[in-house]
Amino acid sequence: SFAYFTIKDRLPQILTRVIDTLHRHKNEFFEEHGEKGVEAEKRAISFLSKLRNELQTDKPVTPLEDELPDAALWNQYLDYQRNLSNGNGEPSWFQSPWLYVECYMYRRIQAALAQNPPIENFDVFKEGKAQSFFESQEAVIALCTYFQELLKNIKDLDEKQLQEELFKLLQVSLWGNKCDLSFSAGEDRSQKSSPLQSLENLIPYILVNDMEKLWSLLVNAKKRNTEKSNVRVDIILDNAGFELLSDLVLADFLLSSKLADEVHFHGKSIPWYVSDTTKHDFNWTIKQLQSANHMWMSRCGINWEGNLKKGVWVYRDHMFWTLPHDFSSMAEVAPDLYADLQKSNLLLFKGDLNYRKLTGDRKWEYTVPFHQALNKFHPAPLCSLRTLKSDTQVGLKPGQGEQIQASEPEWMVNGKYGVVQFDAAV
């Protein structure tokens, strides 16, 4: 299965790159922290080399030994996996659910640093994320320019035109999800050209297209909205780099068009899946735009900094997003987060990992309804914007999956197809 090749080939590659990154920063650690920094780097590398060996030789998954606040939850989850294995011994790297061991690897990378101060706050993926952003400059400029031109006459757009613009920016955000560094094991996946020009040609590759439903939800929320209640949209982020920029433009459009009054962004509290957005990445991106010597890029950055200051944009992270649990257990494991999401009018879940966690990462029949696969996770109306990079997909029409499979065996994992898949949460 795709899961097998991911664990066998991609994850060891990612660990090798992490080890290499730490090694290359040895001098920096020495300059900042002296011998202590170098010692910490050596210990972290030895920890990660051991981890890579455990993975490649299918050793049992071991409990976490660090002091981070989520360690107990991870270790409880390991016990839960032990009970699932029906007495077949310990869960191991190749004998466990893919979602679990993949998340576990990233958490162990975090442990390697957390247990080795003074380099505990070093983000081993930061360079790759920054590089991906800079390599997408052309696309960034094209999108910022398009958007700032759009803002000039956004007040004059009629409902039909607003809908068209929303659909365009939803698609840019959808296809922005192709820029995923964990999928390419850290190889360059940046968006080189303007994403707006190819949208028309990509429509046939959207397998489930519920954009109309999103539009009517937002328009109706606006109409029902009294002075007292704000329309709130939450974006559960995926990758930093160009994808994050496409999400920020979409969020700004929602505010500027008055389709929403506030947007809440949810990122990761630790470096995750190579290119996932952390608070540092979020702030760094806005700073990069502000200081760009391109008029429309800096205008975007300045406006977005303003949105954060005014509180119409809110960034938050929660450790639940970097736990191995699928979302159907959020209400039990993170009731505070679930209660917060219930205040939203619309949840937009970006990307493949979120889709896997929404659907429990099971090998569903393609025609199983999305609502059913969510397994009672319904805090608010939600929509997944995702390009397919793993072999789980629900909510297709009868025969649709089989038809594509016949001509394209890799269709579920090559990032060529996407979904804008909505569930009304009723």
From TrEMBL:
Any GO molecular function: metal ion binding
InterPro entries: ARMT-1-like_metal-bd_sf, ARMT1, ARMT1-like_metal-bd
Keywords: Hydrolase, Manganese, Metal-binding, Methyltransferase, Nickel, S-adenosyl-L-methionine, Transferase
Organism superkingdom: Eukaryota
Gene3D superfamilies: 1.20.930.60, Uncharacterised protein PF01937, DUF89, domain 3 (3.40.50.10880)
Reaction(s) this enzyme catalyzes, per UniProt: L-glutamyl-[protein] + S-adenosyl-L-methionine = [protein]-L-glutamate 5-O-methyl ester + S-adenosyl-L-homocysteine; beta-D-fructose 6-phosphate = dihydroxyacetone + D-glyceraldehyde 3-phosphate; beta-D-fructose 1-phosphate + H2O = D-fructose + phosphate
Similarity section: Belongs to the damage-control phosphatase family. Sugar phosphate phosphatase III subfamily.
Protein name: Sugar phosphate phosphatase
Protein source organism: Ibidorhyncha struthersii
